[in-house]
Amino acid sequence: KGNESTLSSEEEREGILIASNTSLMASIADTICCLWESVETSLKDPINEASHDFLVKSFSGAVLGETHAHFERCATDDELEVKAKEDCNHVCSCILWCAGQMAPADVAGFSNQIT
Asked: How many angstroms separate the CA atoms of 38 and 88, rounded?
């Protein structure tokens, strides 16, 4: 399976937010950041306010916070391989970047991590 990294089977049994392939999750998170960045200027145009609001609604609130908390825990899990920890840290950085694109009220749990 090459350089794929996986979370523990214990996490899978618990039924918590998981990604059996953290490398894939890191790629998805990176893709979201790249796409958001590519349309960032257009999203600021008043004509695209509905699209901006949709993105914010989709990514704000508990969604980002819970996902970030999960991958942050994984990044410090001593049982995970180094590559899996790196992928978890990458997911966390992408989540923080996305949170930084939103108003503080939309990402209340991140205000101490975003400047």
From this structure: 24
Residue type, 98: C
Instruction: For the chain, report the end-to-end CA distance as a whole number of angstroms.
Output: 39
pLDDT in tens, 20-64: 678 888 999 999 999 999 999 999 999 999 999 998 888 887 778
pLDDT tens string 82-115: 888 999 999 999 999 988 888 888 887 765 555 5
From 7, 61, 64, 3, select the one nearest 33 (Cα to Cα).
64
Positive or negative torsion for Cα 6, 88, 60, 45: negative
| Residue 3, C-beta contacts closer than 8 angstroms, at least 6 positions apart | 23, 83
**Could you give the dihedral angle defined by the CA atoms of residues 33, 36, 39 and 44, in that order, rounded to the nearest 10 degrees?**
-130
Does residue 59 contact residue 102 with C-beta atoms inside 8 Å? yes
- Joined together, the tokens standing for residue 10 give 């214990």
66 neighbors 45 (Cβ within 8 angstroms): no
